[in-house]
């Protein structure tokens, strides 16, 4: 029942996003019909294209067209690739997800460890590192960090492979099953290629992860300190439970929900920062696709990309809320 | 003076707990005899909770503890990090707190919390463990323990949370129960029900109990032995009946005078002059001297010895006789 | 205990106020000076190319080296300060004004207006910031204006939310009721009596947002949106320098990148310092 309620509460957000995306497409300067008809078009052919595209109709009618196309999962066609935008996005989404989720996992694990260290010994070195990472993560431009890492680890030290996509050319790319190449290479049993994929992932993942690290570490520290100073941890200690039990079950669990919420927020950062990181590392994901299209004024892919990202964000937050309710009964009270 | 572990479960001699240079508990000696309920009574801030925490092994790391002797049935309690000591906690010494809702974890089912403690100390698993959990809940009068064990504290009343806390404390049949202001924040009827339950369980299991309270009426009703604390010092130690019929320390008298249930009427209520002294400043040897009408010059210079027959001992140079 | 917790967490970034607070504020002054005087101080013309001088490493003559067209990287970085600060400042001013207005209306009116505006703000926030910026740039076309508008819209929710909260909190205060009875128009009450209380909050938020706005705008120009090449701008300079990483000419991308980072750091630290100065609670 509560789950259903929370699911329904996402609907207004989705409607808002759809309206906003529609408004964005209609803000387009100049005459899209003339644009789509090409430079050699006559006034008649422009009118023809206008009718074809439905741009001669009133705005509300256009909105209805837009919605019904959306309902059929039709996001239009990319002018540059000639493919349907949905197909293009679907082909590139796994690359983006592999990168983003990789970074999210790294940021979460390191962030929680760092926050733990900081909370257990306030003022100790993990605490200082926590501060430093936060400050740096706030101010460091993603793309600049990416390039610095490439310069140091590829050019100077030669430890990292060239920042050119998901796998160096002398490996054959795996047959796509999941679209996650780390998994696909393992499914094929190709350990060499798996290692190649990992090597390729390291720098972009680290670049992205550094941005998520600060907020997660800080929230872990704050939330954990609050619980550690509280009565329930004192009780657990007074009853002789092992320190591991005290720390994980009695201290970490009540702190998990604020941390989880921060992880959701970080994912939203990462989905944005992805666009830059994909460009720096030649990563063939949806962000790079959107940028390429944007630069050649091919707008349908960009709109599709924006819609996809927003829907993903809403979905992720929904998932996080449901997970939080499963972990912490206190979050269920107000439904 | 050798310890007497046949009569006493806990013996403390010259126990001092300090924060920096400030002795918040000042050379206190306290015995907890087996099978008896000892109440430690005093105003809030008198250091009684610190004594409770030091026995339970949860003294804040900011405090330092010194004692000539501080033992539980032969085990040294002054080094809380010792591993033998670890097994006392929850197994032989259990504690219940004020504000039980905060003292229990909000994100773990109450049955799981009790199960954690039973598993730790009695090594039970699976079906045996869940049976023990249900038994523990049933023993404190929780109706329908099978269903209630799945509740979270947020779904229970304050009184019910305290029952759960008591079930948790008694789950491993400890030999000592420390009750630290167990009824603060509960309404009057619930208070009585909770204390009746605690006392009934203690008597039935032949346990010793340290009852920490600021409420004299409550101590009178439930405790066998009373220890009166003022500003970190124990000023009077007496059997309950004796203390209330013939209080000897001026502070005890003042406390009784200030307590509504002792006075015949509101008009007869006498406030205690002054308030607890600031422990950080220069203190008279007897820390009550500045508030005491019977104080003599020597009270400020020399700490009064605790004298008198067993069952009616007082630390005062000029006691009421 | 709980209160104590809150104050320690909020004051953490600047445990050593006021000294640590003064340093970013002083640096902020320096940065603003560089923005105003930059073109006058630059030792070389930032756009004059000289192929004979291309890709020289840092030296006493060219402190930050030269780029692929022989332009002096130091001069370009210095001159770019004005562009980047201006883009950030214009964007932040727009979000400050519009966000405050939206927030004030929502907070004052309450009820359905508040709900609708709240939903709108939530929808904006549902887009990862950078994604929204890309989308807006797509809608408005590839121009400097769209970079500014995108940056402004992205930062707008912060102001709208803060102002909404503060206005609705004061909405029912006794003196507001009294002012209403005295027939002072609501717009006047809000503008003259409620908003002045928020100046500190908004100043702090603006300094923090300047950092993010500059970062955001530089990111957009890095991927080729907005400001066009010959004009010096930090994001573009980093993008230009990126290709020379592979031949080891590190200075072309490093110096503008570090400067950008420094500028963002100064604005966010100064924002924290301002919060310390203006909000005694967080001490």
Automatic annotation (TrEMBL), chain A:
Membrane-spanning residues: 7-28, 99-120, 132-157, 201-219, 247-271, 305-327
Q: What is its main location?
A: membrane
Q: How does it sit in the membrane?
A: Multi-pass membrane protein
InterPro entries in the record, alphabetically?
BPD_transp_1_N, MetI-like, MetI-like_sf
Localization recorded for this chain is:
Cell membrane
- Has UniProt tagged this entry with the keyword Transport? yes
Give all residue intervals belonging to the ABC transmembrane type-1 domain.
93-324
Q: Name one Pfam family in it.
A: BPD_transp_1_N
Q: Does Heme appear among the keywords?
A: no
Give UniProt keywords alphabetically: Cell membrane, Membrane, Transmembrane, Transmembrane helix, Transport
Q: Origin, by domain of life?
A: Bacteria
Similarity section: Belongs to the binding-protein-dependent transport system permease family.
The name on file for this protein is ABC transporter permease
Upper classification of the source organism reads: Bacteria, Pseudomonadati, Pseudomonadota, Alphaproteobacteria, Rhodobacterales
From TrEMBL, chain B:
Which Gene3D superfamilies does the entry link to?
P-loop containing nucleotide triphosphate hydrolases
Concerning SMART domains, the annotation shows: AAA
Give membrane topology per the record. Peripheral membrane protein
* One Pfam family, short name: oligo_HPY
Record-linked InterPro entries: AAA+_ATPase, ABC_Ni/Peptide_Import, ABC_transporter-like_ATP-bd, ABC_transporter-like_CS, Oligopep_ABC_C, P-loop_NTPase
Q: Where in the cell is the protein located?
A: Cell inner membrane
Keyword Coiled coil applies: no
Q: Does the keyword Disulfide bond apply?
A: no
Q: Which PROSITE patterns match?
A: ABC_TRANSPORTER_1, ABC_TRANSPORTER_2
Cite the entry's keywords alphabetically.
ATP-binding, Cell membrane, Membrane, Nucleotide-binding, Transport
Highest taxon of the lineage: Bacteria
Q: Which PANTHER family match?
A: DIPEPTIDE TRANSPORT ATP-BINDING PROTEIN DPPD, OLIGOPEPTIDE TRANSPORT ATP-BINDING PROTEIN APPD
Q: What is this protein called?
A: ABC transporter ATP-binding protein
Q: What is the lineage of its organism?
A: Bacteria, Pseudomonadati, Pseudomonadota, Alphaproteobacteria, Rhodobacterales
């Amino acid at each position: 029942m509560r789950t259903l309620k929370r699911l329904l509460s996402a609907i207004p957000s989705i409607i808002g996003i759809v309206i906003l995306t529609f408004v964005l497409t209609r803000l387009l300067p100049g005459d899209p019909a003339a644009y789509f008809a090409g430079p050699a078009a006559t006034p008649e052919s422009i009118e023809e294209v206008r009718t074809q595209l439905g741009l001669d109709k009133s705005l509300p009618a256009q909105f209805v067209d837009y919605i019904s196309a959306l309902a059929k999962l039709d996001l239009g066609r990319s002018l540059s690739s000639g493919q349907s935008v949905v197909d293009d996005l679907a082909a590139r989404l796994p690359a983006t997800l592999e990168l983003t989720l990789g970074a999210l996992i790294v940021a979460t694990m390191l962030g929680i460890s760092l926050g733990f260290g900081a909370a257990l010994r306030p003022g100790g070195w993990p605490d200082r590192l926590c501060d430093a990472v936060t400050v740096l993560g706030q101010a460091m431009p993603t793309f600049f960090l990416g390039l610095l890492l490439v310069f140091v680890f590829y050019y100077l030290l030669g430890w990292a492979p060239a920042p050119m996509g998901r796998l160096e050319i002398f490996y054959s790319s795996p047959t796509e099953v999941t679209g996650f190449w780390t998994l696909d290479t393992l499914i094929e049993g190709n350990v060499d290629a798996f290692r190649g994929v990992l090597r390729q992932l390291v720098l972009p993942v680290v670049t992205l992860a550094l941005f998520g690290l600060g907020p997660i570490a800080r929230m872990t520290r704050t939330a954990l300190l609050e619980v550690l100073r509280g009565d329930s941890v004192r009780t657990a200690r007074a009853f002789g439970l092992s320190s591991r039990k005290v720390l994980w079950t009695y201290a970490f669990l009540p702190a998990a929900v604020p941390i989880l919420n921060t992880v959701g927020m970080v994912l939203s950062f990462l989905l944005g920062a992805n666009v830059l990181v994909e460009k720096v590392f030649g990563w063939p994901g949806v962000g790079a696709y959107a940028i390429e299209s944007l630069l050649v004024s091919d707008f349908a892919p960009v709109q599709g990309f924006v819609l996809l990202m927003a829907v993903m964000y809403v979905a992720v937050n929904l998932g996080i809320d449901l997970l939080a309710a499963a972990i912490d009964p206190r979050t269920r009270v107000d439904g | 003076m050798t310890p007497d572990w046949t009569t006493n479960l806990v013996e403390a001699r010259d126990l001092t707990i300090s924060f920096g240079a400030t002795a918040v508990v000042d050379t206190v000696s306290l015995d907890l005899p087996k099978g008896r309920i000892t109440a430690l009574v005093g105003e809030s801030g008198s250091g009684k909770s610190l004594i409770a925490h030091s026995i339970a092994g949860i003294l804040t790391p900011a405090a330092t503890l010194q004692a000539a002797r501080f033992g539980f049935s032969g085990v040294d309690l002054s080094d809380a990090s010792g591993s033998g000591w670890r097994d006392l906690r929850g197994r032989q010494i259990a504690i219940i707190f004020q504000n039980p809702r905060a003292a229990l974890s909000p994100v773990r089912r109450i049955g799981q919390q009790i199960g954690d403690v039973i598993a730790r100390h009695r090594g039970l698993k699976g079906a045996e463990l869940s049976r023990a959990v249900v038994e523990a809940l049933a023993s404190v009068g929780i109706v329908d323990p099978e269903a209630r064990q799945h509740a979270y504290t947020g779904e229970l009343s304050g009184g019910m949370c305290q029952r759960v806390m008591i079930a948790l404390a008694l789950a491993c049949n400890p030999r000592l129960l420390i009750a630290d202001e167990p009824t603060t924040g509960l309404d009057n009827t619930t208070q009585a029900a909770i204390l009746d339950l605690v006392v009934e369980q203690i008597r039935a299991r032949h346990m010793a109990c340290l009852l920490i309270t600021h409420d004299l009426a409550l101590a009178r009703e439930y405790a066998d032995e009373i220890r009166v604390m003022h500003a970190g010092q124990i000023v009077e130690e007496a059997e309950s009946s004796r203390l209330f019929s013939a209080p000897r320390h001026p502070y005890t008298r003042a406390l009784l005078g200030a307590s509504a249930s002792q006075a015949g009427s509101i008009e007869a209520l006498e406030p205690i002059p002054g308030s607890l002294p600031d422990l950080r400043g220069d203190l008279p040897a007897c820390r009550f001297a500045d508030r005491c009408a019977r104080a003599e010059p020597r009270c400020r210079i020399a700490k009064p010895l605790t004298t008198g027959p067993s069952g009616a001992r007082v630390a005062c140079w000029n006691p009421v006789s | 205990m709980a209160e104590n917790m809150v104050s320690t967490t909020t004051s953490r970034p600047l445990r050593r106020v006021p000294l640590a607070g003064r340093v970013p504020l002083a640096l902020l002054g320096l940065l603003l000076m560089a923005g105003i005087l930059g073109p006058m101080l630059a030792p070389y013309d930032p756009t004059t190319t000289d192929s004979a001088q291309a890709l020289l490493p840092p030296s006493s003559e060219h402190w930050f080296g030269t780029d692929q067209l022989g332009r002096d990287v130091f001069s370009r970085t210095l001159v770019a300060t004005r562009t980047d600060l201006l883009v950030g400042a214009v964007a932040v001013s727009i979000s400050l004004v519009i966000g405050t207005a939206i927030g004030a209306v929502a907070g004052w009116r309450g009820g359905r207006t508040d709900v609708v505006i709240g939903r709108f703000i939530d929808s904006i926030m549902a887009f990862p910031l950078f994604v929204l910026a890309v989308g807006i740039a797509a809608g408005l076309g590839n121009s400097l204006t769209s970079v500014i508008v995108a940056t402004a819209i992205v930062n707008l929710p912060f102001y709208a939310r803060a102002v909404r909260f503060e206005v609705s909190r004061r909405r029912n205060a006794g003196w507001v009721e009294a002012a209403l009875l005295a027939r002072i128009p609501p717009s006047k009450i809000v503008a003259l009596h409620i908003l002045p209380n928020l100046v500190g909050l908004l100043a702090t938020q603006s300094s923090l947002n300047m950092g993010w706005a500059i970062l955001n705008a530089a990111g957009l120009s890095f991927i080729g949106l907005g400001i066009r090449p010959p004009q010096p701008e930090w994001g573009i300079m980093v993008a230009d320098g990126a290709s020379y990483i592979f031949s080891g000419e590190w200075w072309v991308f490093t110096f503008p990148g570090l400067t950008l980072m420094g500028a963002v750091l100064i604005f966010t630290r100064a924002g924290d310092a301002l919060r310390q100065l203006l909000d005694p609670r967080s001490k």
